[in-house]
Amino acid sequence: MSSFSVLPQGGLLQDIDNIEYVKYSGKTYRIKNNRIFGICDEVEALKQTIYFILNTERYEYLIYPDNYGSELKGIIGMDRDIAESEIKRRIKEALIQDDRIENVDEFIFEYEKDSVLVKFTVFSIYSKLYESVVI
To answer: What is any Pfam family matched here (predicted)?
Structure first.
């Protein structure tokens, strides 16, 4: 007869009100030209995060949670006025998921043939960052 006759029981959280949330450092691997080298943190890590969020289409990759990435593909073909409004909303919505980012504003649109360069300011816990994305 087996000595393991008792089935395991589910775990219980005793003091759920006393849970401490730990904020991890902003350190991450530095990625440049599809190569990983060294570590970066704070502003440099945040810039890298912004780049990856805006260049990852939301819901397209199962490895990422539903709140990661942007939804910029669906904007192609929209009327310019509607597209600008949607681009602002979608970029802000994508980036504000990161708790280091407080706001995204000051959008500037520069059109060239079949693309638009969107410049914007990211207000983070570190400083103002001036970022851009081509759609």
So the answer is: Sheath_initiator
Q: Report the pLDDT averaged over residues 74-85.
A: 87
- CB neighbours of residue 89 within 10 Å: 12
- Three-state DSSP at 29 gives strand
Q: What is the pLDDT of residues 22-66, one digit of tens each?
A: 665 678 889 888 888 889 889 999 999 999 999 999 988 889 898
Determine how many CB atoms are found less than 10 A away from the CB of residue 122: 25
Domain for residue 1, yes or no? Answer: no
Write the DSSP string, 89-134.
HHHHHHHTTSTTEEEEEEEEEEEETTEEEEEEEEEESS-EEEEEEE
Residue type, 88: K
Q: Residue 15 domain-assigned?
A: no
Q: Which whole-number Å values give the CA distances from 79 to 20, 75, 105, in the listed order?
A: 47, 9, 21
In order, the DSSP letters of 37-97 are: EEEE-HHHHHHHHHHHHHTSBTTS-TTS-TTSSB--GGGTTS-HHHHHHHHHHHHHHHHTT
- Residue 3 belongs to some domain of the structure: no
